[in-house]
Specification:
The complex is a heterodimer. By secondary structure, chain A is mostly helical. Chain A contains eleven helices and five strands; from the N terminus they run H-H-E-E-E-E-E-H-H-H-H-H-H-H-H-H. In chain A, a hairpin with a 4-residue loop joins strand 1 (61-63) and strand 2 (68-70). Chain B is α/β, with parallel strands linked by helices. Chain B contains 13 helices and ten strands. Chain B has helices spanning 37-47, 120-133, 137-142, 167-177, 180-188, 220-225, 240-243, 257-267, 292-297, 299-302, 328-334, 337-372, 374-397; strands spanning 9-13, 23-26, 68-69, 80-81, 155-157, 191-192, 204-205, 211-214, 231-234, 253-256. In chain B, helix 6 links the parallel strand 8 (211-214) and strand 9. The longest helix of chain B has 36 residues, at 337-372. The chains are: A mainly alpha, B alpha/beta. Chains A and B meet through helix 2 of A and helix 3, helix 9 and helix 11 of B. Chain B: It comes from Anaeramoeba flamelloides. Chain B: It holds the Pfam family Ribosomal_L4. Chain B: InterPro entries: Ribos_uL4_C_dom, Ribosomal_uL4, Ribosomal_uL4_dom_sf, Ribosomal_uL4_euk/arc_CS, Ribosomal_uL4_euk/arch.
């Protein structure tokens, strides 16, 4: 294979330059591995630890089907690998975040025997570019992979810090559980309460009372046509009923007990639809009214006209 | 680690006051013994069998029947069946390991080999490895001990510790030195045992906390006895099962000063034999320099090796090349004729296009002409056609 000299090749291993001896690891490889700066003993030390920790049990190792993770706080990228293990590397560095500040943690073999002071903590500057420069400066003699990973980690930390700050300014929706049972129960109770309250009835009563109290005297504007129509209707009915009433009266007078009156008053409130003049024009109408009068002092007398108004009002409410 | 000629120095700490070095002691040679997880595993697995108690199944279990096989011809399996009648048991299968109420397969016997002999030297090797591992911070951490707050590893403390009598004092000391975090871990993770050990007097499971090694017991044993997770041991009788629980090296050990110094005498060194183990020298590593990479890269080795053979392309790394069909410059470098080829092709295309166009235009024109002049032509054609027919008729006749 003939390769023209100006051909742009992505791989940096080919063609072999005279610098790299053919039998050794290439210079670049050794740089990547970072073995240049290490002592003989250091390598041995790391080797021993990795053979105990990496292959056998390590309390920080978390195995899944696809990947082995490292739970160690100081791991650069959370994966259990020889070059990333904070235990098996005598020279190690990480970037960790504490209360919004990014810190560069560095470990060297000289301090391994004093766990108290093993990690040298350096506060990274707030400015991103300055922080990167500081990492470059402090990790000068560390393997290139460590530097790259540290920078990546710094970037990621800064990103999530920014996001946190942004989120604090907005109102976050609070997710609340939906307890089906509770919801169902509450809904049923609401419906029941609604029924029991008998709102329509109470509204009815309230309005009736107000009308009786005379609030609406002279207030209500009725449609002239409708009003006349109603008048005609009511007038005709009333005439009929008056006759009946007279007949009944001659038959015998029945007196109403308080309870009955109350019940009938309720009946008025309950079902306004079934309101007919027949219902209204009772034998004991006067008596009932008297009772009502007694209940509410200072209320004006009732007239036939009043009934019409009430009836119409109810109809309007219906509508 | 493997060939340490220099003997580093270890600080001795007080048991109260300030966490400061009051003295410095040389590191005993044991801590430079080779760390061999394989040896430790082997010895541990065998040692752990030594505290077993014999158990077995009753010799008569499943055999207390006079069952006989019914033989063939009865449309049942030939397994021995219980004799007699009048009970549910009669006719049921017996004796086999597959039978209900039968004897198990290979009933356990008391004369099973419960204990294991391990060569004394191997045992000592393992213990030396385990002790050496207790000084390696990453190994202690990997075992799960919380040692982040310790002033030093190995942790050596003044002999006053041996005279402690009260548990309160012991706890105070542990907190002072930074070892209490490990104890807290033990307390926090105390659980009821999973399984039947629960009701066999092994109800709770605890983690292993720090181990305190002393030279003389002047009360220390009782002081630390009740603290969960903490174990005490005499230097003279260090147990591998405690030094490497679960055959995992790196127990967190707190040494008293005298105990620490005694290690040199108990385990000796490579030059001087042990005073307490007759004829025992510290184990030598198989390889003095285990850094294989370094050895390979060294001049002594490199000069002797032959040249590296060129990598076979077949199984080699795939080289990322620029795609010539995407990048024109790359294509041209590979095949300089390509440019002219393209040009030629272009010219050809244009030429063909032109020709084609001409033809198409021509035919279109003809068609249009035919369309527009068709009315006139029709009349003419009709006449023409009559004439033609006449001529044809004539011809036919002829």
């Amino acid at each position: 294979m003939i390769f023209p000299s100006s051909y742009s090749i992505r791989s940096k291993w080919w063609p072999p330059t005279p610098e790299t001896p053919s039998t050794c690891l290439s210079l670049r490889e050794s740089q990547l591995l970072g073995n240049e700066n290490k002592d003989e003993d250091e390598n041995v030390y790391e080797f021993i630890i990795w053979s105990c920790v990496g292959e056998n049990f390590c309390c920080f190792k978390a195995k899944t089907k696809l990947e082995t993770f490292c739970r160690n706080r100081y791991n650069l990228s959370g994966i259990c690998r020889r070059k990333l293990c904070p235990l098996a590397n005598s020279q190690y560095a990480t970037v960790l975040e504490h209360r919004g500040k990014c810190l560069l943690y560095m470990k060297t073999i000289e301090r391994i025997h004093t766990p108290n002071k093993m990690w040298e903590k350096i506060v990274l500057p707030d400015k991103y570019s300055d922080a990167l420069k500081m990492i470059d400066e402090k990790l000068q003699y560390f393997p290139k992979m460590t530097i790259n990973k540290a920078k990546q980690r710094l970037t990621r930390i800064r990103q999530y810090l920014m996001r946190m700050r942004r989120m604090k300014l907005t109102v976050q929706p609070k997710l609340v559980r939906v307890n089906k049972k509770v919801e169902r129960r509450e809904r049923k109770r609401e419906n029941r309460a609604l029924e029991v309250a008998k709102i329509e009835k109470s509204i009815n009563n309230e309005l009736v009372d107000r009308l009786k109290s005379g609030l609406y005297d002279g207030f209500y504007n009725f449609d002239q046509e409708e009003f006349e129509q109603m008048l005609d209707k009511i007038g005709a009915k009333y005439e009929e009923e008056e006759e009946e009433k007279e007949k009944e009266k001659t038959g015998g007078s029945t007196f109403v007990i308080d309870e009955e009156a109350e019940n009938e008053m309720e009946a008025w409130g309950k079902s306004p639809k079934i309101w007919d003049m027949e219902d209204l024009v009772d034998d004991n109408y006067d008596k009932k009214m008297k009772k009502l009068k007694k209940r509410k002092k200072g209320k004006p007398k009732f007239e036939i006209e009043f009934e019409q108004e009430v009836n119409q009002q109810q109809q309007r409410e219906k509508n | 680690m493997t060939t340490q000629q220099l003997r580093p120095i270890v600080s001795v700490f007080p048991i109260k006051g300030k966490v400061k070095t009051i003295k410095q002691v040389p590191l005993p040679s044991v801590f430079s013994a080779p760390i061999r997880p394989d040896v430790v595993r082997f010895v541990h697995t065998n040692m752990a069998k030594n505290n077993r108690q014999a158990h077995a199944v009753s010799t008569t279990a499943g055999e207390q029947t006079s069952a006989t096989s019914w033989g063939t011809g009865r449309a049942v399996a030939r397994i021995p069946r219980v004799k007699g009648s009048g009970t549910g048991r009669s006719g049921q299968a017996a004796f086999g390991n597959m039978c209900r109420g039968g004897r198990m397969y290979a009933p356990k016997k008391v004369w099973r080999k419960w204990h294991r002999k391990i060569n004394t030297n191997q045992k000592r090797y393992a213990v030396c490895s385990a002790i050496a591992a207790t000084a390696v911070t990453p190994l202690v951490m990997s075992r799960g001990h919380r040692v982040n707050k310790l002033p030093e590893l190995p942790l050596v403390v003044s002999d006053q510790l041996q005279s402690l009598t009260k548990t309160r004092q012991a706890v105070k000391f542990l907190k002072f030195i930074g070892a209490y975090r490990d104890v807290e871990k033990v307390i926090r993770t105390k659980k009821t045992r999973v399984g039947q050990g629960k009701y066999r007097n092994r109800r709770h499971v605890l983690r292993k906390g720090p181990m305190v090694v002393y030279a003389r017991n002047l009360g220390i044993k009782k002081a630390f006895r009740n603290i969960p997770g903490v174990e005490t041991a005499s230097v003279y009788t260090l147990n591998l099962l405690k030094l490497a629980p679960g055959s995992q090296m790196g127990r967190f050990i707190i040494w008293t000063e005298s105990a620490f110094k005694l290690l040199e005498d108990i385990y000796g060194s490579w030059e001087k034999p042990s005073k307490f183990k007759s004829g025992f020298y510290l184990p030598r590593p198989v390889m003095v320099n285990t850094d294989v990479e370094r050895i390979i890269k060294s001049d002594q080795v490199q000069t002797v090796l032959r040249n590296r053979r060129p990598r076979s392309r077949k199984y080699g790394k795939k080289i990322q090349r620029a795609d010539p069909y995407e990048d024109m410059s790359v294509m041209v470098k590979l095949n300089p004729y390509y440019k002219t080829k393209l040009q030629k092709q272009k010219e050809l295309d244009e030429k063909n296009k032109k020709e084609r166009k001409e033809i198409v235009d021509k035919s279109r024109k003809e068609y249009e002409d035919w369309l527009y002049f068709s009315e006139e032509e029709e009349e003419e054609e009709e006449e023409g056609s009559d004439e033609d027919r006449e001529i044809e008729v004539l011809s036919d006749e002829n």
